[in-house]
Please model this.
Amino acid sequence: MADQATAFAPGRVNLIGEHTDYNDGLALPFAIADGVTVNARTLTEPRIEARALDLGESDGFTLERPERVSGWRAFVRGAVAELQRMGVPLRGAALEITGEIHRGAGLSSSAALEVALCLALTAIADAASLDRMDLAQLCSRVENEWVGARTGLLDQLASLYGVADHAVRIDFRSLDVQPVPLELAGFRLVALDSGERHSHTRSGYNERRAECARACELLGLDSLRDATLEMADSLKTPLDNRVRHVVSENERVELAVRALIGSDVAMLGELLNASHVSLRDCFEVSTAAVERAVDSLLRNGALGARVVGGGFGGSVLGLLPAHMAVPDDAIEVRPGPGARVSSG
Model:
């Protein structure tokens, strides 16, 4: 137990496997260098005093009964409430929060915030550290129940299990996480901001999740992991297309793993393009701004490009040859290590 601790949690880019996590499917994300940092210092009073330095905003509440609020404060209060519900004996703390991820760009700033908050709070608590899988599930509950976004576990697992120079293959049915070397033979991955902010709580994300649940109900399945393309034909639009996307996206994840292991960058580019077409046409999560960003990357020589982060705005991931300059409003994204904490 320490009186002070600093926790950093990275954002993530999902190489491929979108809207599959809450369907017990597969995904292949990687942690990035940018993320959220939380500095925690113990207080003698049983209170949380939080400051979001980038926003110039603050919040304060007692440990006993965090009330529900909106915005970034919901993440803080949810983290405190869920940790205590897990039996973590939290101490009063002053929290300073800073971030390098553009909010709404689809690089998982929210999961990075949840993870960094929980790691910092547990580091100064009189308790053993939580298992990282348990922590990921706790953070997902924060986002689901306190923020109102019905996300899966992809973002939290990518942040917590990130490995330098690797993506991680996640099986959301078994919760098996395996590193996959991300070697691109001189090619680069970039995230191009579409210029359109997105929010899980205000976009169609929750609607898509509900549609997948409805498709399972009609098909008599526990999850779309068990669905087939033939089953999709028995459903009416749009549910048939939602199933087609999930089934084909799981297949693309496995093919992407093989492409990386076999150093087949051209195949990886084709898979990114196919994923975007499916997300646009079958899952209907693209927008005009996203399409402009995808077209811009492909016209300038990218091997593949797709919307990331759930869609409805945010960023586009592009696979660029070495000779292609990184476009304006884009950043190169490289796989980095996962969340970590230091005391003192």
